[in-house]
Amino acid sequence: MGQIKLTDIDRSYGNLQILHGISLTVEDGEFVVLVGPSGCGKSTLLRLIAGLDQPTGGRIEIDGVDVTKVSAAQRGLAMVFQSYALYPHMTVRQNLAFGLENQRMAKEEIDKRIAEAARMLEIEAYLGRRPGQLSGGQKQRVAIGRAVVRNPTAFLLDEPLSNLDAELRISTRAEIAALHERLATTMIYVTHDQIEAMTLADRIVVMRAGRIEQIGRPLDLYNSPANLFVAGFIGAPRMNLMDVKVTAAGPSSVTVEGPGGLTATHVGDGSALRPGDPATFGVRPHDLAVVESGGMEAKVTLVEALGPETVVHASLPDGMKLVAVLQGQTVSATGGTVRLGFGAGRTHLFDKAGIRVPDVQAPAR
To answer: Which residues neighbour 197 within 8 Å (Cβ) at sequence distance 6 or greater?
Structure first.
């Protein structure tokens, strides 16, 4: 079992409050990613779960048992740090065995666990080496192996890929996903990289300033962000967001006008909106396309030819910046103009408070 439940967790340092009433349940075997900008409190929350720090308010439960005041060593969790935290004077085998030896585990069981973890993580060839003889990716696999041999109730991973180069991040990310699939053990993973969050998580917890902004499956957050912050944070390149004015609103659609000659009808429940209200209109770069008429007229400021797709940076007459990701090797000359349009149902709308205009619910069958 590995259910972790947080109820109304607060953490303050003097007069500075870092976490504000965090409540979250991570189910047994679930892979949950905490994501948000630097300083949002995600690593602090992970340390509280691990028992490396104590909350100033609230309750932490593991499999229904209150562990709020239980020491880290007694929680049955394993943590993988950004810095690897390997002992440089020990071999890989000794690093893997160290924690188990401190528990006075039988040598035969230690050898069995090390052999299984080394096979799983493909580090058998490194067991006799010291950390200084390993690459960054190899060190991270050893750090993960040190957690695996403990057979923990849950794994806690604090930005484990941030010290790796781009290619290694991708391959190691795939290894972590495969490891979770094999072990079926609860994992809570902290990152500021929303691509890692999208590709790894069963559910994502988006945090800002010590609060949870939204919890959901990756594609739910991508397709239906709860507010402007989540809309701008989830998705790469980030969503294009434009200031618009409501011209008509009803229970099934909202019509808006905006920069660059934009006139659009968004499918959503606009019952709470009135003509003349300010709003924010959003469309993702991948949902934009070059059109012959209609859409928004923009000046091309930069073209990035990536092979299978072309990223076009453009500017509307009022200075608003747009990014479009066009399929294929589309050539758009810098300094020229282009009309960018979008399909029905591919837009997002947020009221003046930054809250998503509700999606229209399909009628019950």
So the answer is: 33, 35, 191, 204, 218, 234
